């Protein structure tokens, strides 16, 4: 497959046009290997290996990615409301909580036991391939057990195949497993299905 063909497939995935796309190849240590500047060359010319990644740079100045609009949330104006105005509103979660507490003061007490969902972990083992809902995100099980820094009960630590997670295996200062940044997640076992869930090919033909 030529570099141009790779760009065409990436365009269908990320929206950056072929003519506005610059590609760079990074190895598994996050070191830049090459800039894929020749569209006519085959991808194999740059010797990509398992674990390498392609970095897409959008050169279109009018693109929504320009200036960090997809990464820097400080650029997005946030809706704010004062405590006084919020307290005046009906139908808010605060009003609902106050109503529940007035009717049943014990309603919000912690009802989770230390063995919450332990039974659902019986068929989940570290190293299992899995799919996590919602989103059908795939990865590998890296941890099964309690996580006191999060909440009572049992949790499953997942290393996603893609950077769809929230951390690198450390949650609230506690390391539960090792994984690359933004590939880790801690989820309840009822969200995890283990089995034959191979890593998806990012270049497979599918509907966009």
From TrEMBL:
UniProt cross-references to SUPFAM superfamilies, sorted A to Z: Cap-Gly domain (SSF74924), Ubiquitin-like (SSF54236)
Single biological process term from Gene Ontology: post-chaperonin tubulin folding pathway
InterPro entries from the UniProt entry: CAP-Gly_dom_sf, CAP-Gly_domain, TBCB_Ubl, Ubiquitin-like_dom, Ubiquitin-like_domsf
Highest taxon in the source lineage: Eukaryota
NAD among keywords: no
Gene Ontology annotations for the cellular component aspect, listed alphabetically: cytosol
SMART domains reported in the protein's UniProt record: CAP_GLY
Protein's cellular compartments: Cytoplasm
Keywords annotated in UniProt: Chaperone, Cytoplasm
Recorded GO MF terms: alpha-tubulin binding
Annotated ranges, domain CAP-Gly: 146-188
Primary location group: cytoplasm
Family per similarity comment: Belongs to the TBCB family.
Protein's recorded name: CAP-Gly domain-containing protein
Organism: Citrus sinensis
Classification lineage: Eukaryota, Viridiplantae, Streptophyta, Embryophyta, Tracheophyta
